[in-house]
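Researcher: We're teaching a course module on how sequence relates to structure. For the next exercise, students receive a sequence and then see the predicted structure as tokens, so they can try to spot secondary structure elements on their own. Here is the exercise chain.
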Amino acid sequence: MITQLTPYLGELVQSELYRCLVQVCTRPALLCARTCGLNLVALRAMAAAAAWDADCQLLASGTPVVPPHGPLPVTDNPRAG
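Model: And here is the predicted structure for the students to work with:
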């Protein structure tokens, strides 16, 4: 799903630590509450549409809803320290 969203959102969409998680990022804003809230709604809507196209659904959760049979695959992206 990240691959489908990258052409539209660039660095605003990323894999989280685990590949089953998607992270959307807002840009810095002067009027944070209003601007960031609207941006977050738009980013989540685009991510939900991409998930739907991939025959999946998004859920706001810090962990997978259906536990895997083994360890969770970790993303190949380096993590900032």
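Model: If you want an answer key for the exercise: The chain has a mean pLDDT of 76. The longest helix spans residues 32-53.
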